Amino acid sequence: MAFGELQACESTPGWTMLSLDFKSAFNYTDRARLHEIVADKVPGLLRAFERHYARPTTHCIVDKFFKVIDIDVGQGIVQGNELSPFFFALYSCEVLGLLDATTDYRCKVIKYLDDIVLMGPAEDVAADVEIVKARAESAGLHLQPSKSRFYMPCHHPASITAIKSVLPDAVRETANTGMTVLGTPIGRREWMKKQLNDKAKHIAGKLNDMLTTGVSLQALLTAMQYVPSLINHLYTLPPSLTSGLSELLNRACKDTFVKAFFAKVNLSAPAGAEGHDVTLEQLLEARLFTRANTGGFGLHDLVERGPVAYVCNMAKLATHYPRVYDRLLEDESRAADFEAHVQRAGFQMATVKDAGTQRPAEIIALRSKAALDDLMAKCALDLQQAYLASREWGVSTVLTMRGRDKLRRLSDTTFAIAVVSMMGFGLHELINVKPTDKCPLCSSKTPQPRLTREHLLTCRPIKRHNALRDEMGRLLRWFSLCLLMA
């Protein structure tokens, strides 16, 4: 809803976005109180919590003489552990009263771990700051006013005074005409466009460095984390702002994945030799499911996906912020731009309005028949069965698994498709299989079968691939049970 918040900010005098910063929030977490919260809210994870934090944890620091010193610490949450973000989120939400059925906060609160953004009229924001400050201090967390930022598009002296009364050192973002809220730039259109372009150039430079200096599979997975952070921009901001970003992201992802992963596999090396990570059959499987043989890596064109998601978000906007939605369409140029994207996304204009006011979830089902036919042609298989790993499993889990001696090393076929899975989509949205293609896994058959829906459901190599997927799922479940029961 970032675009809706932007419109509210631009049109309401005194409307403010304020980001709060806590001093070493993870380190100041009260373990004793967190133990009580875990026991009350999620008792199933109590043993996992006690395994990590029942005893003091060891921290390593390096002094000015480069001597490594081990210190036992009995306070705080250790960052880097798979469960740490969850435990801290549970702790902070509980102490701030965000888990209550009813809340006494006046404005909108957006929170991710230790990042908190308050949005609303300045007077309400100021009142909520006092609530956050008091509750946080009672739990050992302290604000850093000097690192707080607020953005107020419409200059309003009384509102500025209200914010300064509770956070005298807070810095008002004026020169940049905008502020980044949990990774999404919100502000003047030109400023948002510049922020997106700068970020895209930075990422492109990083990816190019990887291609020229060599890359490991772990480094590639790290680079792919850039992708989900940018996908959010494509789906919450107007496509007119993000079309260039979509094109660059398409190119960067495809080039990086194909060159850095597939081109580095040395198929002629003997088994066990450096560079011999996958067999030819595994490589063909990976190419089939990631479309590397056509230069892509499984993503539908983001330039095409952007308008669809944008229209869906606009329908949600019509439901939750109808006045903002109406103000958007009062602007003739903006309304025309929106209608163009609606048509491009395969919707009818009336359908979007009806779905937005009645049942937004039906939008996808109400797409035009031509758009649905095109989608079915690209996805000639019910790809839910090819969904490789649960979307709840993050990058850190796979990296941890790959580093564990006790676990069998995941094959690079699984790894390649796991990268796609972790981008936040189901594979049924990502895989672009055309029914006119021939199956590369059945090249020995005459005639070579085409990639029809029926063949994909019966192909033996694909069934073996699905067995590999199931094996990965079992490893993930086994790994989680080890954490909980150790």
Task: Compose a concise summary of this entry.
The protein is 53% helix and 9% strand.
Strand arrangement across the biggest beta sheet: 4-5-1-6-7
| Unreliable residue runs | 214-222, 256-300, 348-436, 465-486
List the total number of helices. Answer: 21
Mean pLDDT: 59
The main β sheet shows up as: 5 strands, mixed
Assign an overall shape: globular
Question: Number of folding domains?
Answer: 3
Work out the strand percent.
Answer: 5-15%
Helix content: 40-55%
Radius of gyration: 25 Å
**Span between termini:** 41 Å
What is the SS-derived class? alpha+beta
Q: What string gives the helices and strands in order?
A: HEHHEEHEEHEHEEEHHHHHHHHHHHHHHH
How many DSSP-defined strands? 9
Protein name: Reverse transcriptase domain-containing protein
Domain Reverse transcriptase: 1-186
GO molecular function: RNA binding; structural constituent of ribosome
InterPro entries: DNA/RNA_pol_sf, Ribosomal_uS5, RT_dom
Write the SSE topology.
Layout: H1 2-11, E1 15-20, H2 31-41, H3 46-53, E2 57-62, E3 68-73, H4 84-95, E4 108-112, E5 115-121, H5 122-138, E6 149-151, H6 157-166, E7 171-172, E8 178-181, E9 184-187, H7 189-213, H8 217-224, H9 226-236, H10 239-260, H11 280-290, H12 302-320, H13 322-330, H14 332-344, H15 349-357, H16 369-378, H17 395-402, H18 412-421, H19 427-430, H20 453-458, H21 460-485
Parallel strand pairs: 6-7
Antiparallel strand pairs: 1-5, 1-6, 2-3, 4-5, 8-9
